[in-house]
């Protein structure tokens, strides 16, 4: 988990002003990967009492646009956010409870998977979602 000074450096490195709402949301995303916006609003409010829903949505958009945060949205799910960016990792998603777990790239360096026909594209990333049942749901 990055400390307050590291979060400030991250914001400045992408040309953003350091504000309390940005710090609160970025810290919450680091602390709680794969939360949805509603849960992040609650997590951010433990850091800054008077942060509005709209402020959290605006901050998430800016953090995503600047590459500090990644937005994922597995089929049938609301958008989720994570601070693990730039490493071309994938996700395991539980069909029953919706739990999401990071999975390192399947083999080798990005894009780690090669399409059978790239149609002339220069492929630089593969986004893979593995679906199944988590250990807790399998045991239930």
Automatic annotation (TrEMBL):
Q: What is its main location?
A: cytoplasm
Q: So where does this one cross the membrane?
A: none
Specify one Pfam family: FUR
Q: What does the UniProt keyword field contain?
A: Cytoplasm, DNA-binding, Iron, Metal-binding, Repressor, Transcription, Transcription regulation, Zinc
Q: At the top level of its lineage, which domain of life is listed?
A: Bacteria
Keyword DNA-binding listed? yes
Q: Which compartments is it annotated to reside in?
A: Cytoplasm
InterPro entries cross-referenced by the UniProt entry: FUR (IPR002481), Fur_C (IPR043135), WH-like_DNA-bd_sf (IPR036388), WH_DNA-bd_sf (IPR036390)
Keyword Zinc in record: yes
Family of the protein in this entry: Belongs to the Fur family.
Recorded protein name is Fur family transcriptional regulator
Organism whose genome encodes this protein: Blastococcus goldschmidtiae
């Amino acid at each position: 988990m990055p400390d307050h000074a590291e979060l400030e450096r991250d914001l400045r490195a992408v040309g953003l002003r350091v504000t309390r709402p940005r710090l609160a949301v970025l810290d919450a995303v680091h602390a709680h990967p794969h939360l949805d916006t509603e849960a992040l609003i609650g997590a951010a409010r433990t850091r800054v009492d008077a942060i509005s829903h709209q402020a959290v949505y605006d901050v998430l958009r800016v953090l995503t646009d600047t590459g500090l945060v990644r937005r994922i949205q597995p089929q049938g799910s609301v958008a989720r956010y994570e601070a693990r960016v730039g490493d071309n990792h994938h996700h395991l998603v539980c069909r029953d409870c919706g739990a999401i777990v990071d999975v390192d790239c399947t083999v080798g360096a990005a894009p780690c998977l090669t399409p059978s026909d790239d149609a002339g594209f220069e492929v630089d990333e593969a986004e893979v979602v593995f679906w199944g049942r988590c250990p807790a749901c399998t045991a239930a």
